[in-house]
Amino acid sequence: MSNETLLSVKNLEVTFNTPKGDVHAVRGVSFDLGRERLGIVGESGSGKSQTGRAILGLTAANGKITADQLQFHDVDLANLSPKQWRKVRGARISMIMQDPKYSLNPVMTIGDQIIEAYREHHKVGAKEARRRALEMLEAVKIRDPERVFNAYPHEASGGMGQRVMIAMMLIPDPELIIADEPTSALDVTVQLQVMAILDDLVRDRGMALIFISHDLQLVSSFCDRVLVMYQGHVVEELRASELHNAKHPYTKGLLNCLPKMDGDHSDLPILEREASWAEG
Amino acid sequence: MNTQTHISKPGLKNWLTSDTPQSRFQAQCGRTWLGWIKFTENKLAMVGLSIVIGLILVTIFAPILAPYDPLAADLTNRIQPPGAEHWFGTDQLGRDILSRLIYGAQYTLLIVGLVAITAAPLGLLVGTAAGFFGGWVDAVLMRITDIFLAFPKLILALAFVSALGPGIENAILAIAITAWPPYARIARAETITVRKADYIEAARLQGTSNLGLIIGHITPMCMSSLVVRVTLDMAGMILIAAGLGFLGLGAQPPMPEWGAMVSDGRQFLLEQWWVATVPGLAIFVVSLGFNLLGDGLRDVLDPRGGD
Amino acid sequence: MSAVTRNNRNGRKRARFTSGPTGTVLRLVFSLAITFFGLLLVTFLIGRVLPIDPVLAAVGDRAPQEVYDRVREEMGLNLPLWQQFFIYISNVLQGNFGQSVLTANPVLEDIKRVFPATLELATLATIIGVSLGIPAGVFAAVHKGKWPDHLVRIIGLAGYSMPIFWLGLMGLLIFYMKLDWVAGPGRLDSFYLDFIEPTTGLMLVDTLIEGDTDLFWNAVSHIILPASILAYFSLAYIARMTRSFMLEQLSQEYILTARVKGISETRIIWRHALGNVMVPLVTVIALSYANLLEGSVLTEIIFAWPGLGLYITNSLLNADMNAVLGGTVVVGAVFIGVNMLSDVLYRLLDPRARR
Fold this sequence. Notes:
The complex is a heterotrimer.
Chain A: E1 7-18, E2 21-33, E3 37-41, H1 48-55, E4 63-66, E5 69-72, E6 75-76, H2 82-88, E7 93-96, H3 100-103, H4 110-119, H5 126-139, H6 145-150, H7 158-170, E8 176-180, H8 188-204, E9 208-213, H9 216-222, E10 225-230, E11 233-239, H10 249-256
Parallel strand pairs in A: 3-9, 3-10, 7-8, 8-9
Antiparallel strand pairs in A: 1-2, 1-4, 1-5, 5-6, 10-11
Helix pairs in contact in A: 4-5, 4-7, 5-7, 7-8
Chain B: H1 12-17, H2 24-41, H3 43-60, H4 62-65, H5 97-133, H6 135-150, H7 153-164, H8 168-194, H9 198-205, H10 210-246, H11 258-265, H12 274-301
Helix pairs in contact in B: 2-12, 3-5, 3-12, 5-6, 5-8, 5-10, 6-8, 7-8, 8-10, 10-11, 10-12, 11-12
Chain C: H1 21-49, H2 54-59, H3 65-74, H4 81-93, H5 107-142, H6 147-161, H7 164-178, H8 203-209, H9 213-250, H10 253-260, H11 265-302, H12 308-317, H13 321-349
């Protein structure tokens, strides 16, 4: 891990304009990210996914992003033209989406989709791109890359689809990967497998990772640092190794929700909430 | 951010928008009211509604509105251009085109109305029966529906009219025969989504007969999508009816049917263009009215089917 | 639900068959056969309820009773209805629709002669409609709620509301009579008619085969107006459906994926979204093509276009029932065929439906 700051977010706000009034999805989130693996944890609606999307400038059309600072290396993410964005997306920051069943184009072959991601940012011939794509499929531990290359997304299982997703998002060699609930659509049995593949590749290539999940346990085992979000606010930030020292009652609550093998089986505590946490 | 505070006070509007309706009737009225509000926001739909209401009013008040007798020929006044005396001119027999248009509205409304009240219930009956009973009833009824759908509508209507003989009654019958299959499809689809619902089962346990279930509990669920589709189809019915009239297979002379009037004007197209143009415009405007109204209704009643 | 027959404005996606390819083919063929059988049953019944007595039409009303009875028996009208129906089916399957009273030719021969004219008109109209309708629909979807969207919507609604025969007349009035930009009714100027030998029956193709550019441009100036008028209706339908399918696809997750990859908006719209839209759109295009064959009935009358529509209407007005029913069966069969073709294309285009 280096001390160099890759991404600096200060006071990020994401607001959606809906017929029922403004919805504040993200309220004043700030964090710095080095070449490390940062976890963002929260329930659905906590603003964790919207934080990830805002970094890529992919907030839905009715949403507005404001921030005091949104700096990625030398690039000011707050003021990019569509053309400049295209040089950042995929090439420098990429995102792994939740469910390969919906996030892969159903009428394009897997190979074409991976090649497209690569050739968008690297001027190479079709042959070279194909070789790279097959290599990448191998890197995500797909046994028969040729066959998968020519297959359509519906022909791949969930676990395989997500490995394809990882291959596609990593092939242009970005510096930062945002993984938005990358395993929650998968069978429990393949979740860890896919996570391990992602983890290995991110380590090997020295990428930074933002891992967004509702699963505090999973996040803490793959990340260096954890942000806990509640209703758009960051309520606590702590090192993954010091999870047991969590101070905020919400974090504690999340931790206590997990049944322990050696613990008291009689009753699981109910997650407590207080309105004051959301005022931060 | 500005917050609006509703001060609770008695009144029709509050009764309609109440969060806690006291009766089914009030809830129903409230829903209709909200739908109406949404509908009125759609300007094009309001234009459509005005056109359709206008058509109905013209139909009712035709004798008062029409300046001349639509059938009275005046051979000394043949094919007059539009002017103060005859706003839309006169046709080849010297009849006032405006008066013929006004009376023609009656035929248009008659055709559309009769087709709707015959084809829609027929489609509803076939569709709900197919969806409700399933199995071979479904297979047979839907196969028949598909066969009718396989025909091009106008050609089928032409073949029917040629078999039954020209005339407005036969034109209506022919259009109704070609119009029902889509309604059966819609009703079947809606029925299938609700037939397994708990409230149907509950009604069945209370001893409601199959017929009672279909009429009392399933049919109402099909109504909104059906109304939308029928309204949209009315434009098409008007066009087919006008087409039959144009071919001389619909309303017979001297009835002032709009399609037939366009056909009359064909012979003088170059010099007396208004004879054919004006009734064609009337068909266009009325049919557009039904399309706009149907589009607006769909946005309110059937958000799923909208684009 | 039948795979063959759909007539849905919303271009609903079909339920996908899960069984193997043989099952699918069998089901298609079965569906096709049943629908065609139904088509024949309906035309047969229409022929039977006819108030015009076919015997009388054949022998004339002065014929003595014995002649009438003999002809009636010869025509098979004494047989039970079901036997008559089977005779009718076997005749139709052999291409025998009987004799046209009007032209004194076998109906099938007449239809073979007039069909290419309709085909040419409907095909050109579909080509125009597709090449303008798809971009218009995409444009409207991408600018949803802005003026391009409203413009496409208004053009579409007007198309749905316009009586085609009236639009044809107005077209003739303005572009032929007043402006003289295009040629008038018919497929060629009558002066040229003797110069052309029908090879394919498609005037644009035949004139090119003969290498006569004068004739070709004359044919173009004749067909362009009726084809454009038909195309307008096809355009209205295709643009509306394209818009609605595009909106659905643009909100899908894989579009976001493509954006994450840094793909250009142009490529996202035309390659990713439209690639998916083409699957249901093929059905819509096929349907609009079949509808144009029907829409050409009224257009052909306005433009004196010697096609199937004009043939059917002329026969109809002369109570030439064999010709009317023959024409109806042919149009119905083309309808069924086009629908099936769209089904096959759908399978080819959608990787999820092919095996």
